[in-house]
Amino acid sequence: MAVTAGAVLTVARAPRLGLVALALASIGVIRSDAAWDGLRPDTLGPFVGWASVTGDPQTLPGATRVVLTIEGERFESWVRGRVRSQRAAAWRAGDRVVVAGERVALDDPRRQRVASQHVVGAFDAEWLGDVAAGDRLGGASNRVRTVIARGADHLSPDHAALARGLVIGDDRDEPATMVQRFRDAGLSHLTAVSGQNVALLLAAAAPLLRRIRATPRWLVTLGLIAWFVVLTRAEPSVLRAGLMAALGATAFVLGRQAEPLRLLAVAVVALLLVDPLLAWSVGFWLSVGATAGVVVGAQHLTPRLHRLGPLAVPVAITIGAQCGVAVPSLLVFGRLSLVGTVANLVAVPVAGLVMLYGLPACLVAGTVPLVGPIVMAPVGWGVWWVDAVATVGAAVEPAAPWSWLGWLVVIAAVAAVARARPPPSTPRRSVRSLDCVDCLARSKTRSLGRSLGSHPAATMRSDVRPPVER
Fold first, then answer.
1. Are the C-beta atoms of residues 149 and 171 closer than 8 Å to each other?
2. Helix, strand, coil distribution of the chain in percent, nearest 5
3. Are β-strands 119-132 and 73-80 bridged in parallel, bridged antiparallel, or unpaired?
4. Which residue would you say has higher pLDDT here, 339 or 437?
């Protein structure tokens, strides 16, 4: 209703734009109703046969959570028991598995938690059978991820798990203690893939892309983005960043100016029209909020922080991102890290280098094991640094009510800076002057925790709480 009312007001002020907004709002309402109605299962009851694994299984204490596609509908299954849980944990997205069990309905609270994954019911697995490879695209993606995982295994187990999370968003093996300290330090977005990975991928490919003519370069760029989206399991933050990057590349080819805020708006509207249930993904909230905070915050705060010199832009970007994710973080997690701003300034640059170098390094180390220890040494140092910053940040993070008092001071300081006028010698630059790739790179999310992801799994741990057994 609010969207429709806004569209009607726009019609009164700018008829053409208003009519477009009203049409999109109407389509959105229709699509949303259809998507929500689609969450009602067509068939319940016993099932024996082949099912497809949707997304990588998540190993949690006492169970493995997996989403299965059965006869065209998605069901959430919690596989318990040590042997059965380990067997399910070995599955990969796209695999076809033989299962036997019961399809049951979800209660309303549970249905809302898993709505963004298009889950229509629960599947109580009684028996797990054979496993077969899925389609070619999924199989190719799994093979690449296996090589990357093999390369990361040259590091210690905890650091290997964090490296996989930084590079491709594979956060399944990250210990609960690691996830918690990153969350306490305000660095949980680093434990899984995010929009920054897309930006760094394109930055790494830029020297080669510049050698290609405009149209082929555009096609290669779109192909590279699509490949990375598939490789990282199409997490909401990657979908948002990938579509923004694709729109920016298309605008460049057409010779048009690409404003980051406009790209974000178009990407969000397009994604929600295609998949309205993304609105239930906390990972999507965080990604959009962080990006908007980065774009707006960098524009308004950078000139006013000129006394910080070269730190003005990164400080403005970090504060903007923190402000952008404040509301969803408080609503979902009930807290916002006070040390997060400082921790991000210290950890994110090194994490970015790990993401940039880590993907080719893991591929080389996984393909040629003899050079693995040497190639992976820089990744190990970077991962150690990021983990050390999280450990220190979690240790010094004050408990309530001191953290709330600290945020009152921070808010007052930011408000004072925002209201201050920039010095006459500092021209007011638009967001355009800030590199769009930098904006995308800092728009991390994901996940405030273990993969907040498509299913923000624990970046959105709240999304994957096991159902209470009765």
1. no
2. 65, 15, 20
3. parallel
4. 339
User: Where in 252-330 does DSSP place strands (E)?
Assistant: none
Using CA of residue 180, residue 181, residue 186, residue 192, what is the dihedral sign? negative
The answer to whether 161 touches 322, Cβ cutoff 8 Å, is no
Task: Let me know: does 134 contact 82? Beta carbons within 8 Å.
Answer: no
- Domain range list for the chain: 2-37, 45-134, 165-464
- Residues 240, 288: Cα–Cα separation, whole Å: 8
The residue with tokens 């774009």 is 295
What the block records as the tokens of 460 is 């959105």
pTM of the model: 0.81
| Separation between Cα atoms, residue 281 and residue 385, nearest integer Å | 30
Q: pLDDT of 65-94, one tens digit each?
A: 999 999 999 999 999 988 899 899 999 998
| Backbone angles phi and psi of 56, in degrees to 5 | -70, 140
Omega prior to 276 cis, within 30 of 0: no
- Judged by DSSP in three states, 405 sits in helix
Contact 459, 194 (CB under 8 A): no
Element (H, E) at 121: strand 119-132
Angle at alpha carbon of residue 182, lines to 235 and 268, rounded to 5°: 30
Distance CA 191, CA 347 (A): 12
Amino acid identity, residue 47? F
Amino acid at the residue 361: A
Q: Are residues 458 and 464 in contact, defined by beta-carbon separation less than 8 angstroms?
A: yes
Give the integer Cα–Cα distance in Å for 142 and 383. 23
Q: 380-415 pLDDT, tens per residue? A: 999 999 999 999 999 988 877 777 787 787 777 767
DSSP string, 192-246: S--HHHHHHHHHHHHHHHTTS-HHHHHHHHHHHHHHHHHHTTT-HHHHHHHHHHH
CATH tag for 45-134 (out of 3.10.330.20, 2.40.50.140, 2.60.40.10, 3.90.190.20): 2.40.50.140
